[in-house]
Amino acid sequence: MTKMKKVALITGGSRGLGKSMAQHLAQKDFDIIITYKSKAEEAEKVVQEIEGLGRNAKALKLDVANASSFDEFVEDVKNSLVKDFDQANLTALVNNAGIGTYISFADTPESVFDDMVNIHLKGPYFLTQKLLPVLSDGSSIVNVSSGLARFSYPNYAPYGIMKAGVESLTRYQALELGARKIRVNTVAPGAIETDFGGGAVRDNADLNASIAESTALGRVGLPDDVGSVVAFLCSEDAKWVNAQRIEVAGGVHI
């Protein structure tokens, strides 16, 4: 019997955490579709890296803040599955794409709040909804949250509360999609050395050291720390893990 191919779609997969997720999923024998908003060259480099691991890969353009574009994007996914992967369905979806914001509650304009809603909450909600016919029964969904949904730092309210919403979304999706044996889980990264938020955790030595001191394992995170957990949750190794929030933060603020 021919083993069915596994195809994972990762939003925001051209750099940082999404890139690491794609690499780890490829190592678990997934073919990969990543999305990018504007940096096509970076996305293509990731595609080439995945192909270098012996897997098929494709980069598709997507603006997760623009829900009106999702129907067209889903058609792109369907076409790519048939043309590039010889498949009709996805076996994993990772809602990873996002941006940060740094502003106090008192100073947050409605426009910034709306951006956070559209990118971090409305985007995963309706993109997943639109992709349901493309997701195979028994597939896995991973929604990316943040440690900031559990603990609070000043100036992260618009971002942190959206991620809290994502965690609630995960539980409702797990409940309602269980009839199709679709598992839905949350991964909540702590502070990670990427270019997210202008690369502050990576490039600001004082900030890096301060977070490390607050973390039981004594360092900040790396993309590889998160990518491997996402790949686990998408794989059969996690077949009985459902509706869970896994914080990947080294034990910060225990």
Labels describing this entry:
single chain; 254 residues; alpha/beta; Rossmann fold; 7-stranded parallel beta sheet; 8 helices; 7 strands; 43% helix
Textual characterization of the structure:
This protein has helices at 16-27, 40-52, 70-85, 110-131, 157-177, 200-203, 205-213, 223-234, and strands spanning 6-10, 30-36, 57-61, 90-95, 135-144, 183-189, 245-248. With 254 residues, it is of the alpha/beta class. It has a single domain, classed as NAD(P)-binding Rossmann-like Domain (Rossmann fold). It has a seven-stranded parallel beta sheet, sandwiched between helices. Helix 1 (16-27) packs across helix 8. The longest helix has 22 residues, at 110-131. The model has no long low-confidence stretch (mean pLDDT 94).
Tell me briefly what this model is.
The protein is of the alpha/beta class.
